[in-house]
Every structure is written in C-alpha cells, then in structure tokens.
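During the reporting period, we have paired protein sequences with backbone structure tokens. One record among many follows, to show the layout:
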Amino acid sequence: MKRILLFSAFALLISAGLWQCSPGTKYTPENMPSKQLHWGYGGGFAGQETSFVLLENGQIFRRNGAGLALQEVKGTKAKTAKNLFKTFDRDLKKYDFNHPGNVYSFVQQQEGSSIRRIAWGDDRFPVEQKAKDFFNQLNALVVE
C-alpha cells in the first residue's frame, strides 16, 4: 500500500512539474500581446528594413521589408525573454535617442499604443554602448 501511495505522489509531482513548464499562450501575427520588444536594421541603397519582434513568452517573429507579413522564427526561453524586457526597462526605457543614418539599427519597446524607440546610425551622433550591447543580445537570439 505504501508503494502505491509513494508512486501516486511521485506521479502527481511529475505531472505538476510538467504543467508548470508548459509554454502557455502561443501567439500569432494576428493575435499579439500589447507588450513587445522590436529590433532591427535597415536603410542603404534599397532602403529595406529587417525587423524582429520578441514576446515575453519567448516567441520571436521576423519581418523582411515594409508591409510584409510577420513570420515566426525559432524563439527563446520565456525566462530569457522576460530578462530582456527587464533590461530594456532598467537601462533603456528613459534613453531618448533618434539619430538614424542612411544605414541604421534600432531597438523599440511597445506597450499598447506607447512606443519607445532608440535608433542610431548617424556617425555624428554616437549611441551609448548599452544600446548596442542590448541590440547584440537580441540579435544573438536569431543567429542562424
């Protein structure tokens, strides 16, 4: 009888652990949460922009060019995504910088209708290293 109880308790613990590790809500480009991190780069001769969207659950979407649809790409762990959102809030949310050049990079946080964008590329206006470092952290998520 003790074995049955121990086995049942063990099975219950395993089930509870798996339930808590479930990925949660899966979003689509048509059904996105209001809080998002965007980053990307663009400009140059063709003027095309490549951008990415990170969600707090770890999903990542990519857009190549203006007006094109978002496509889901390999994501990251929710914990990693949440830490990146916290980093933006802590280090960049109050940083006001908009000096894109002919070729530019950007990071942006969107919460509902509120958008906080940092763009750089104009050599006359160097961006703070923390913005570049954050951009590189985000880009490391999508390196193929």
